[in-house]
Each structure stands twice: as C-alpha cells, then as structure tokens.
Amino acid sequence: MRNKGIISLLILILMAVSINAQTLTVEITNIRNDKGNISLAVFIDNSSFVKEIPFLAKTYSKTNLIDEKLIVKINLKPGVYGISVLDDENKNGEMEYNLIGVPKEGFG
C-alpha cells in the first residue's frame, strides 16, 4: 500500500512540473549549407550570456534541414531567456572569425 502512495506522489509531482513547463519553438532559417551542426544556447540572464555559460546547450545535425530551415522545440519554465545560435560548419564548437574579426560562420 505504501508503494501506491509513493507512486501517486511521484505522479502528482510530475504533473505539477509539466504544468509549469512551456514549449519554446525556435525556427532557424536561411542556413547556408548542410555542413556541420547548429548549436543553440539558452541563457537565463545577461551575466551568463556575457560569460558564455548557458543554462541549456543543444547541438543539432544539419542533415535534417528542410528548405534551409531547422525547427527546434525546447521545454522551459516560464520566464525571460536569451538564445544564441551558431551555424558551426566545421563542428569545432566555436565561432570562426576572419583577420579583422568578422564572423565567418552564421550566427543569431
């Protein structure tokens, strides 16, 4: 009988968590080619953005692009977030720059 009570409690907790979660849909368009990955980072405040410490980081293969577009769905608690996107064509996890500091890879 005790196990049923624990299971019921866990179900209630999961329901409460899922009620607070929201789905954010990010549509990334005009992707130049199908080489590499798309890296997406979610930041909870300006400080974490400046320090490049994301709350959530995801990488998506560009092999599934449809019409130079990638649609990503992320579950987050309601709030204000910052998002950055890197078109990581060489899969090294870093933005590439030319000699004068202009990005060579796509970003957003």
Outline the secondary-structure elements.
Elements: H1 2-20, E1 22-28, E2 37-43, H2 46-50, E3 56-61, E4 70-76, E5 82-88
Antiparallel strand pairs: 1-4, 2-3, 2-5
Explained architecture:
- The strands form two sheets. This protein has a three-stranded antiparallel β-sheet with strand order 3-2-5. It has a two-stranded antiparallel sheet with strand order 1-4.
- With 108 residues, the protein is an alpha+beta fold.
- It contains two helices and five strands.
- The radius of gyration is 19 Å and the shape is flat.
- The longest helix has 19 residues, at 2-20.
Q: Record the strand order, biggest sheet.
A: 3-2-5
| Termini separation | 54 Å
Q: What is the C-alpha radius of gyration, as a whole number of Å?
A: 19 Å
Q: Write down the overall mean pLDDT.
A: 83
Keywords:
two-stranded antiparallel sheet, 108 residues, flat, three-stranded antiparallel beta sheet, disordered N terminus, alpha+beta
Quick rundown:
The protein is an alpha+beta fold and 108 residues long. The protein is built from two helices and five strands.
